[in-house]
């Protein structure tokens, strides 16, 4: 199967212009696509690469891989409060396998259709298995949820249940041997994350700053804190209470559970800040998006004393429900995901 046959067979998509003449005016099949955002909207653009052996195991189900490859990119748009518009796919694979490509395309295009995100082009070549997607969304500039917009006094919130995807990875690797509904939910969270696009859209005009949780809660909250020049007090007990929503995660030893929740990564949830006066609005946005959210701390000024964490080490102080320092038990791993570390088998 040649390159263009591969594209036509598995990834062909036409234009998807809206009735008002905006959107995708020209899709894949030409030298470039043509996009027209709605008047007054800015384009939000993000790229993520998934490499076999680094971000996924080579024997992963191709349909799940197609889903996740797009989901992790849509999660970036969600964190900006942007509505998906289009995406491109650059794919390197050792050799074309029709059944494998059919599964990959099915997973990717089903999620793309669910979010109105047109596949408008990309590239294919022979090489080590690698998927690189670029997504394009649109958002009014004044409503974008930027990392540098957190304010002292803001509440800190997180969606979903951080740590569940890290449990899914542990199950996949054989590090844990739990069974039941919670364990299966963890596997699905790892393999088929649900990008929080609806929540990001509902938080426009409500939240101040946001980031998606891809490398670990502390790491990604740290990006907000550094960009905004602030610090945080994080309620560990609120996070553990949220973790109890998954019985398998709750069953882990405390040190392991804390490591997964605080630094596990691959959750693709949203961590965001909002003024205390907007607590009801945050809950309303969560209900509108059918996504649970938990208030897990507050933004403070300066660099508070506390545990040394990475990144933005001195910007986070771990607290209990009363705001007192939380003593981590021995053996808690808080490093977060490192894209240049070796992936364990």
Automatic annotation (TrEMBL):
<keyword id="KW-0460">Magnesium</keyword>
<feature type="domain" description="PurM-like N-terminal">
    <location>
        <begin position="29"/>
        <end position="139"/>
    </location>
</feature>
<dbReference type="Pfam" id="PF00586">
    <property type="entry name" value="AIRS"/>
</dbReference>
<feature type="binding site">
    <location>
        <position position="266"/>
    </location>
    <ligand>
        <name>substrate</name>
    </ligand>
</feature>
<keyword id="KW-0067">ATP-binding</keyword>
<feature type="binding site">
    <location>
        <position position="76"/>
    </location>
    <ligand>
        <name>Mg(2+) 4</name>
    </ligand>
</feature>
<dbReference type="InterPro" id="IPR036921">
    <property type="entry name" value="PurM-like_N_sf"/>
</dbReference>
<feature type="binding site">
    <location>
        <position position="212"/>
    </location>
    <ligand>
        <name>Mg(2+) 3</name>
    </ligand>
</feature>
<feature type="binding site">
    <location>
        <position position="31"/>
    </location>
    <ligand>
        <name>Mg(2+) 4</name>
    </ligand>
</feature>
<feature type="binding site">
    <location>
        <position position="123"/>
    </location>
    <ligand>
        <name>Mg(2+) 1</name>
    </ligand>
</feature>
<dbReference type="Pfam" id="PF02769">
    <property type="entry name" value="AIRS_C"/>
</dbReference>
<dbReference type="InterPro" id="IPR036676">
    <property type="entry name" value="PurM-like_C_sf"/>
</dbReference>
<dbReference type="InterPro" id="IPR010918">
    <property type="entry name" value="PurM-like_C_dom"/>
</dbReference>
<dbReference type="GO" id="GO:0009228">
    <property type="term" value="P:thiamine biosynthetic process"/>
</dbReference>
<feature type="binding site">
    <location>
        <position position="337"/>
    </location>
    <ligand>
        <name>substrate</name>
    </ligand>
</feature>
<feature type="binding site">
    <location>
        <position position="215"/>
    </location>
    <ligand>
        <name>Mg(2+) 5</name>
    </ligand>
</feature>
<dbReference type="InterPro" id="IPR016188">
    <property type="entry name" value="PurM-like_N"/>
</dbReference>
<keyword id="KW-0784">Thiamine biosynthesis</keyword>
<feature type="binding site">
    <location>
        <position position="47"/>
    </location>
    <ligand>
        <name>Mg(2+) 1</name>
    </ligand>
</feature>
<keyword id="KW-0479">Metal-binding</keyword>
<feature type="domain" description="PurM-like C-terminal">
    <location>
        <begin position="151"/>
        <end position="302"/>
    </location>
</feature>
<feature type="binding site">
    <location>
        <position position="76"/>
    </location>
    <ligand>
        <name>Mg(2+) 2</name>
    </ligand>
</feature>
<keyword id="KW-0547">Nucleotide-binding</keyword>
<dbReference type="InterPro" id="IPR006283">
    <property type="entry name" value="ThiL-like"/>
</dbReference>
<protein>
    <recommendedName>
        <fullName>Thiamine-monophosphate kinase</fullName>
        <ecNumber>2.7.4.16</ecNumber>
    </recommendedName>
</protein>
<dbReference type="GO" id="GO:0009030">
    <property type="term" value="F:thiamine-phosphate kinase activity"/>
</dbReference>
<comment type="similarity">
    <text>Belongs to the thiamine-monophosphate kinase family.</text>
</comment>
<dbReference type="GO" id="GO:0000287">
    <property type="term" value="F:magnesium ion binding"/>
</dbReference>
<dbReference type="GO" id="GO:0005524">
    <property type="term" value="F:ATP binding"/>
</dbReference>
<feature type="binding site">
    <location>
        <position position="55"/>
    </location>
    <ligand>
        <name>substrate</name>
    </ligand>
</feature>
<comment type="pathway">
    <text>Cofactor biosynthesis; thiamine diphosphate biosynthesis; thiamine diphosphate from thiamine phosphate: step 1/1.</text>
</comment>
<feature type="binding site">
    <location>
        <position position="214"/>
    </location>
    <ligand>
        <name>ATP</name>
    </ligand>
</feature>
<dbReference type="GO" id="GO:0009229">
    <property type="term" value="P:thiamine diphosphate biosynthetic process"/>
</dbReference>
<feature type="binding site">
    <location>
        <position position="46"/>
    </location>
    <ligand>
        <name>Mg(2+) 4</name>
    </ligand>
</feature>
<keyword id="KW-0418">Kinase</keyword>
<comment type="function">
    <text>Catalyzes the ATP-dependent phosphorylation of thiamine-monophosphate (TMP) to form thiamine-pyrophosphate (TPP), the active form of vitamin B1.</text>
</comment>
<feature type="binding site">
    <location>
        <begin position="122"/>
        <end position="123"/>
    </location>
    <ligand>
        <name>ATP</name>
    </ligand>
</feature>
<feature type="binding site">
    <location>
        <position position="147"/>
    </location>
    <ligand>
        <name>ATP</name>
    </ligand>
</feature>
<feature type="binding site">
    <location>
        <position position="48"/>
    </location>
    <ligand>
        <name>Mg(2+) 1</name>
    </ligand>
</feature>
<feature type="binding site">
    <location>
        <position position="31"/>
    </location>
    <ligand>
        <name>Mg(2+) 3</name>
    </ligand>
</feature>
<feature type="binding site">
    <location>
        <position position="48"/>
    </location>
    <ligand>
        <name>Mg(2+) 2</name>
    </ligand>
</feature>
<keyword id="KW-0808">Transferase</keyword>
């Amino acid at each position: 199967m040649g390159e263009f046959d591969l594209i036509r067979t598995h990834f062909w998509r036409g234009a998807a212009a809206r009735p008002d003449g905006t959107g995708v005016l020209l899709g894949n099949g030409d030298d470039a696509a043509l996009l027209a955002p709605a008047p007054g909207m800015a384009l939000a653009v993000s790229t993520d690469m998934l490499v076999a052996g680094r971000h996924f195991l080579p024997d992963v189900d191709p349909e799940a891989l197609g889903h996740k490859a797009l989901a992790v990119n849509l999660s970036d748009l969600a964190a900006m409060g942007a509505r998906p518009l289009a995406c491109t796919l650059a794919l390197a694979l050792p050799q074309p396998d029709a059944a494998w490509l059919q599964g990959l395309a099915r997973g990717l295009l089903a999620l793309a259709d669910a979010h109105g995100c047109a596949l408008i082009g990309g590239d294919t070549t022979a090489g080590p298995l690698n998927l690189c997607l670029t997504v394009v969304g649109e958002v009014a500039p004044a409503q974008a949820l930027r990392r540098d917009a957190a304010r002292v006094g803001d509440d800190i919130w997180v969606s979903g249940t951080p740590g569940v995807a890290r449990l899914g990875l542990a199950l996949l690797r054989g590090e844990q041997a739990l069974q039941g509904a919670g364990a299966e939910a963890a596997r699905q969270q790892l393999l088929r994350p649900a990008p929080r696009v609806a929540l990001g859209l509902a938080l426009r005009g409500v939240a101040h700053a946001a980031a998606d949780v891809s490398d670990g809660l502390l790491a990604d909250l740290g990006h907000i804190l550094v960009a905004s020049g602030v610090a945080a007090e994080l309620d560990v007990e609120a996070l553990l209470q949220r973790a109890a929503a998954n019985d398998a995660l709750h069953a882990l030893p405390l040190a392991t559970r804390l490591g997964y929740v605080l630094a596990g990564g691959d959750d693709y949830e949203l961590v965001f800040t909002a003024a205390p006066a907007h607590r009801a609005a945050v809950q309303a946005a969560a209900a509108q998006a059918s996504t649970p959210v938990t208030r897990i701390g507050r933004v403070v000024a300066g660099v508070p004393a506390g545990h040394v964490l990475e990144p933005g080490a001195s910007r986070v102080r771990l607290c209990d429900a009363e705001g007192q320092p939380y003593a981590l038990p021995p053996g808690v791993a808080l490093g977060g995901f490192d894209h240049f570390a070796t992936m364990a088998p």
